[in-house]
Amino acid sequence: MSRRRRDDRTDRERESDAQWRTLRVLCSGRGTHGHEVMARLLVHEDDIGSLTLADLPSLTAGEVEAMVSVDEGRAPDPVPHYREDGTPGGVHFTRTFRCSRCGRTVPLREEKFTRRALALIVAGARHVDISRLDRVRLT
After folding, report:
1. What is the pLDDT of residues 49-81, one digit of tens each?
2. Residue 73: partners with Cβ closer than 8 Å, 6 or more residues away
3. What does the DSSP assignment read for the chain?
4. Rounded to two decimals, what is the model's pTM?
5. Could you tell me the residue ranges of all domains in the chain?
6. 92 in the Ramachandran plot: left (φ > 0), alpha (ψ -120 to 50) or beta?
7. CB-based contacts of 30: which residues, under 8 Å, 6+ apart?
8. Which residues does 100 contact at the CB level (< 8 Å), separation at least 6?
9. ∠9-10-13 over CA atoms, to 5°?
């Protein structure tokens, strides 16, 4: 006999969930431990609309940033990095994901990560495993 978890959400909350596409950032230690969810990235269906993978290169960094919401509950804060010479536009942000189970540490440049995460969401992916990023080529 299977047990079902009681769903205490209201109909409005369930409807609201259906309007968001979610990409879970997780670590499996390359299959050595259970999935540790490190962050959730959310994109509203209205923002995706009829976007295709071919449309993504034409989006500006600001447009991508406006579309992709990071659930800050688990995600590490982005840390600014500046060019040594102080030239304009020399700042970028990096989020460093750290798995509490295996200790894996993966720094991901914010702009590239959100752009590729949006591509994964548009393509229908539901999660990305940071322990296998060398195969996914996200950075």
Report:
1. 888 889 988 998 888 888 888 875 566 667 766
2. 40
3. ----------HHHHHHHHTEEEEEEEE-TTTTS--EEEEEEEEEHHHHTT--GGGGGGS-HHHHHHHEEEETTTSPPPEEEE-TT--TT-EEEEEEEE-TTT--EEEEEHHHHHHHHHHHHHTT--EEEGGGHHHHT--
4. 0.69
5. 21-136
6. beta
7. 131, 132
8. 36
9. 80
